[in-house]
Every structure is written in structure tokens, then in C-alpha cells.
Amino acid sequence: xxxxxxxxxxxxxxxxxxxxxxxxxxxxxxxxxxxxxxxxxxxxxxxxxxxxxxxxxxxxxxxxxxxxxxxxxxxxxxxxxxxxxxxxxxxxxxxxxxxxxxxxxxxxxxxxxxxxxxxxxxxxxxxxxxxxxxxxxxxxxxxxxxxxxxxxxxxxxxxxxxxxxxxxxxxxxxxxxxxxxxxxxxxxxxxxxxxxxxxxxxxxxxxxxxxxxxxxxxxxxxxxxxxxx
Length: 229
What we know:
- By secondary structure, the chain is an alpha+beta fold.
- It is built from seven helices and eight strands.
- It is globular.
- Mean pLDDT is 83; it is low at 147-179.
């Protein structure tokens, strides 16, 4: 298990701007239609994040994560990430819908940037062994990081657990209640084994705290040049 606190992530202001507009934010109504003003606003949000992560390697036969490799067994690197409490406290009382859209979009992009940093670090272990890491798939994410939600269609699934859609479709041996129980058991196991408390993450009933946190996995994939040997 590895732990990293307060690591630096790139801040992609233009990506946040693009996604905020796509999500329907009226930037002119909140004084953020100027690129310079928008970048300054994003910088203020970024100053409140305190990224921290724990992650570790899980072999193909690990019983706690078997559901994540249902279709084809692969080793996994699983990470638990939080952006800290301060960013939530800075944004949670916003009432203007356009600013709320910008805020949640920024947090989502910050978290995705952090996941990329973690992927780069974890790849240092995989590459010497002849593997590369997949894109992350999310077990849990707030705000939501992927459209592949097992709760797609519900009114608010921004903090719902997420799974790879192919695995969801193949998982026809479990009913909804059994899948929920499996997921909850796995989450508790990951909290224990990755020692998430060391970065301030905790389980509060069915909620993960701090609010803006995520759990995601990278599959270890045999590199193409190795496959062709």
C-alpha cells in the first residue's frame, strides 16, 4: 500500500470552462464569461483542494475484488482518493445554479487530473513487469466521473457507486440486493486493507467522507510488444 498526501495536480481551466458551458452554465450572469476572470475563479477553487490517496496492488485471485474482474481476471491497482474537506466547505453553500455547475465541474476535473497522476505513479510498478494500466473505472465517485453508472437514470446519482458497464451486464448471477451487499462489503474491505483512515477518509453510514472522494481501479494489461513476442 502506498500513501501520498497533498500532491500537485495540473489545473485545466480551459477544460473546466468547456465542460461548464456544455453543462449549461450561464457564465455571463455570474461574471465569469471573461477567460481571465474564469481562470482566477478556478484558481481560487484549486487553492482549497488537498489531494490525498492510498493505493495498492490486488492479484487476480483476490476474494475482495473478484466482482471487478468478472469478465476476464486481471490484476488490479485500486486507489482511494479524496480532495479533502476544504473544497466541499468552500462550494457547498453556493446557491446560484451557474456557479454550482462550474464548481462541480471543476471538482470533477480536479479529481480526474489526480487520477491521471496516480496512474502515472502506479505505472512505474506495472511497466517493468511487462504491463500497462487501463483507464480508471470507478467503484465509487462523488462527483460522478463516468457515464457507466449502475444507477444511470436515477434523478441524482452523483455519489453513487460505479462499475464497468460490461461487467454489470454480465453480472446476471446476482440480483440487485445481492449486488448492493457485495458492493458494500467490498467497500468496507478496501477501507480496511488500504487503510483509508490515514488520509482522512471514513465511512459514515452509507456515505464516504470527505464528500468529494472516489474509489477506482486500473486493470493491469499485458503490453502489446510483450504479447507479440
